[in-house]
Design a protein that fits this description.
Helix content: over 70%
Strand content: under 5%
Distance between the termini: 65 Å
Number of helices: 13
Shape: flat
Radius of gyration: 29 Å
Order of helices and strands: HHHHHHHHHHHHH
Oligomer: single chain
Length: 306
């Protein structure tokens, strides 16, 4: 097997690349023919503005979509929710995710196998199989790990920008605007502060224009943001609307509470710095200081003992 590997691996790699290029070329040419026949077709117009490599990747991802893979609707909805929480708002985000997961699951083991065959000699067969299996598991779990990390990162950004959103809403509502009009007015300002939060507000506005009630659209927004503060905000607005109380006063009180919470989080982070500095002090600084102090004493002691 080791003797044939330098011949078989390049042949397999070339065959796989040739198959990918052939399939993408056929599909791309089909889309171009459809574009000529149907110039008003939206996907074709979108593809015309994309770059070549990005367009080919998008075509492959849309070809191997969730319908061809056979994913059930509940799983599709969970994937779409996770991708929205991770900041991916494209209508083809689920297809991109499926294609990326298939590519990493197949590509990582193939890359590890090629590296082992070309740059390592004398490795037992069992070790090679184990490396390929571990690479496959890493490739399978990598997209989910990326989504989880991206969701945690966006949750921190949302939590920082949420009090600013409430302050702007308070100003707009005090000026006599409705909640819907206030969200529409502050969308551009929030997009400059946090693009993903602005996109979520834009989606909420599209849902309300499509006929969804304000409370339901706000609930969907809180579900996408995945923040306790957003859930409390929706509950407060629902109670204010149902009970007929002044929305501006409720927003003002809630905004003050959110700003106080943000200040408390900043103070908590600052107070944790002293504890976090213990490890680098103990590992890197304290041994050096101890060595500088004790080294002359040890040298003098050794000289006296001689």
């Amino acid at each position: 097997m080791s003797d044939l590997a330098p011949i078989i691996v390049p042949i397999l790699s070339f065959g796989a690349m040739a198959a990918i290029v052939f399939v993408s070329g056929q599909y791309y040419s089909l889309q171009l023919r459809l574009q000529r026949r149907l110039p008003s077709r939206a996907p074709a117009d979108a593809l015309a503005g994309e770059g070549t490599l990005r367009g080919l990747a998008g075509l492959l991802a849309r070809h191997f979509n969730e319908k061809r893979i056979g994913i059930d609707p509940a799983r599709q909805e969970r994937l779409r929710t996770d991708l929205l929480r991770a900041g991916h708002f494209s209508p083809y985000a689920v297809s991109y995710y499926i294609f990326a997961r298939a590519a990493t699951t197949v590509g990582f083991p193939l890359l590890v196998y090629i590296l082992v065959q070309f740059f390592s000699t004398g490795i037992p067969l069992l070790t090679e199989v184990l490396l390929v299996v571990v690479a496959g598991l890493i490739g399978y779990a990598a997209p989910d790990a990326y989504l989880s990390r991206r969701q945690r990162f966006l949750a921190r950004r949302y939590r920082q920008a949420f009090p600013d959103l409430l302050d702007l809403l308070v100003v707009c509502v005090d000026a006599g605007m409705t909640i819907e009009g206030a969200f529409s007015r502050v969308q551009n300002d929030i997009t400059k502060r946090c693009r993903e939060l602005g996109k979520n507000i834009e989606l909420m506005g599209a849902e309300m224009r499509a006929g969804r009630s304000t409370v339901e659209a706000l609930g969907a927004l809180a579900h996408r943001l995945n923040l306790n503060e957003a859930g409390s905000f929706v509950t407060m607005l629902r109670q204010s609307i149902e009970l007929g109380s002044d929305t501006a006063d409720a927003l003002r009180v809630f905004s003050d509470e959110m700003r106080e919470k943000r200040l408390l989080r900043a103070e908590e982070t600052a107070n944790k710095l002293s504890v976090k500095m213990v490890i680098p002090l103990g590992l890197f600084i304290f041994p050096v200081v101890l060595l500088v102090i004790m080294l002359p004493v040890i040298i003098n002691l050794l000289a006296a003992l001689r």
